[in-house]
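Long-time lurker, first post. I've been practising inverse folding by hand and with some scripts of my own, and I keep getting stuck on stretches where the structure tokens seem ambiguous. Below is the full token string for one chain I'm working on. Before anyone asks, I'm not after the true native sequence, just a reasonable design that respects the backbone. If someone could post their per-position residues I'd love to compare against what I wrote down in my notebook.
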């Protein structure tokens, strides 16, 4: 489990590198043994029905996967890119968009980090569930690619 300072560091990284996350009210709330969790209030991300905007749900889910891998790599010379993603919307979100990225097996994560450091490139597919009050509202899958900056 990460400390509050480490979570704040990830949140500040999002706000600095992806300015839209500040306007969305994105918060990094947990990095635990089983998951990485990001939230954003519907009050800043609503549609014409006053439920969560689909694009915001997609963005928060993407950030959960991105954040998990960023916390694992923790090196500025590696860039994360979303290569492919898909989402299924299951029910409306009314108060808080909570994206929970399931942490892959420890060996799989270690192999990802090692591959980035050895070859400069690696990819990983992650599963993210967007939920509200513990009930799944969207199912998101994304393949991320990490590329080491040749100048870094």
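-- Answer (accepted) --
I ran through it position by position. Result:
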């Amino acid at each position: 489990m990460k400390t509050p300072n480490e979570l704040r560091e990830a949140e500040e990284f999002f706000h600095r590198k992806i300015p839209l996350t500040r306007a969305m009210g994105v918060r990094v709330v947990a990095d635990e043994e089983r998951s990485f969790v990001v939230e954003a209030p519907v009050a800043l991300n609503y549609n014409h029905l006053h439920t969560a905007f689909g694009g915001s749900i997609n963005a928060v889910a993407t950030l959960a996967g991105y954040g998990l891998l960023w916390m694992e790599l923790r090196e500025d010379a590696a860039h994360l890119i979303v290569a492919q993603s898909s989402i299924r919307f299951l029910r409306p979100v009314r108060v808080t968009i909570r994206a929970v990225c399931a942490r892959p097996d420890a060996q799989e994560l270690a192999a990802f980090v090692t591959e980035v450091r050895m070859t400069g490139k690696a990819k990983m597919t992650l599963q993210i569930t967007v939920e509200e009050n513990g009930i799944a509202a969207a199912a998101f899958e994304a393949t991320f690619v990490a590329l080491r900056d040749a100048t870094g």
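A couple of notes from the structure itself: The chain has one domain: 4-148. The longest strand covers residues 135-148. Happy to go over any region you disagree with.
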